[in-house]
């Protein structure tokens, strides 16, 4: 297990996913506005908006919040305008890092991210310095305890998934971006709510193993980036053993 999927597992073990519910709401509101501004406020005609609305409902966001965020995006209500900016860099041990942000002040965001990376033995890189190490894929994670392996595999492969991998407590399904909605729908038809679903995931082609102090520094950096208000998502190609995760939680 590596990078993003590993980090999701770590956060789950720390109990941090529920603790950061407020930030999840803030991020989704920003995404709703950006999606509506770029593709219109009708989810039937805007696949990206449709995906974000589904995520909003999965975390029980009130419908009024969803509607207001969309209306701000289409200009029907006043509000802050956000832009999407992706930054690339390196973490401890040379691990590649891609940081997706939603910000209303790019100068503030880049300065703060540069500071976080430097403080945690990393560095900010140029555009495309590490992006070539990743593939753009649809990504869905399902907890093993919630599903029969054969039923899940048959459903997702029939729907067009590329692969279903065993990652400890979860099955991780990857697919082409264009086929994401069909694969997600196939999972949900099994009466399963995915542990995680990303219409556009940056998955590493290869991984870099981190151990000891370097592994702990990487986990600390990921925590710091994840806590930043402007950060939407962080992708990395690190691979860290279970013992290092336990040590970070001690």
Can you give a write-up of this model?
This protein has helices at 3-14, 16-19, 21-39, 47-58, 63-74, 106-119, 149-158, 180-188, 212-227, 242-249, and strands spanning 83-90, 96-103, 123-124, 134-143, 163-167, 170-175, 196-204, 208-210, 231-236, 238-240. It is α+β, with helices and mostly antiparallel strands and 250 residues long. The protein has three domains: 3-74, Integrase, N-terminal zinc-binding domain (Arc Repressor Mutant, subunit A, Orthogonal Bundle); 83-132 and 206-239, YebC, transcriptional regulation domain (Alpha-Beta Plaits, 2-Layer Sandwich), CATH 3.30.70.980; 133-204, Alpha-Beta Plaits (2-Layer Sandwich), CATH 3.30.70. Strands 3-1-2-9 form a four-stranded antiparallel beta sheet. A four-stranded antiparallel beta sheet has the order 5-6-4-7, sandwiched between helices. Strands 8-10 form a two-stranded parallel sheet. The longest helix has 19 residues, at 21-39. The model has no long low-confidence stretch (mean pLDDT 88).
- Any low-confidence stretches, pLDDT <50, length ≥5? none
**Overall pLDDT metric:** 88
Number of strands: 10
Number of helices: 10
Rg value: 18 Å
What is the CATH class designation of the largest domain? Alpha Beta
> What's the quaternary structure here?
single chain
Tell me, what's the shape?
A: globular
């Amino acid at each position: 297990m590596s990078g993003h999927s590993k980090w999701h597992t770590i956060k789950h073990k720390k109990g941090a996913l529920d603790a950061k519910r407020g930030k999840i709401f803030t991020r989704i509101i920003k995404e709703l506005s950006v999606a509506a501004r770029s593709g219109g406020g009708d989810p039937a005609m805007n696949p990206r908006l449709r995906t974000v609305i589904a995520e909003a409902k999965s975390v029980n966001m009130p419908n009024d919040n969803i509607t207001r965020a969309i209306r701000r995006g289409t200009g029907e209500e006043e509000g802050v305008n956000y832009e999407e900016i992706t930054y690339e860099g390196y973490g401890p041990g040379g691990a590649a890092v891609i940081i997706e942000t939603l910000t209303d002040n790019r100068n503030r965001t880049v300065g703060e991210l540069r500071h976080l990376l430097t403080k945690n033995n990393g560095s900010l890189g140029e555009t495309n310095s590490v992006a070539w190490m990743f593939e753009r894929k649809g990504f869905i994670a399902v907890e093993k305890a919630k599903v029969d392996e054969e039923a899940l595999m048959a459903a997702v492969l029939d729907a067009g998934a590329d692969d279903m991998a065993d990652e400890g407590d979860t099955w991780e399904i990857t697919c082409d971006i264009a086929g994401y909605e069909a694969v997600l729908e196939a999972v949900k038809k099994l009466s399963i709510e995915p542990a995680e679903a990303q219409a556009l995931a940056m998955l590493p082609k290869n991984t870099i193993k981190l151990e000891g102090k370097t592994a702990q520094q990487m986990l600390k950096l990921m925590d710091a980036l994840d806590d930043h208000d402007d950060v939407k998502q962080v992708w990395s190609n690190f691979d860290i053993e279970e013992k290092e995760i336990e040590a970070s939680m001690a």
